[in-house]
Amino acid sequence: MSEQHERVSQYVKQLEDLGYRSFQIDEMIRDAVGTAKIDNLTQVQFQTLEESLQECVSFALKCKGKTC
Questions:
Q1: What sign does the CA torsion over 59, 50, 47, 27 have?
Q2: pLDDT, tens digit, for every residue of 40-49?
Q3: What is the pTM (predicted TM-score) of this model?
Q4: This protein's superkingdom (predicted)?
């Protein structure tokens, strides 16, 4: 597994731990790169996906315990 793939997997795990369901995470991935399958993404797509998931995690952490 590539380093980028590993980081994306870590963001997915964080989102799961924050209460997101797999279908919601798949939709976040699809919105970011056009597909929920991450095995064959280009380097640019991985970078875009990492940034998007990082924003999702940051937002979820900010909202945790609050009403957003």
A1: negative
A2: 999 999 999 9
A3: 0.88
A4: Bacteria
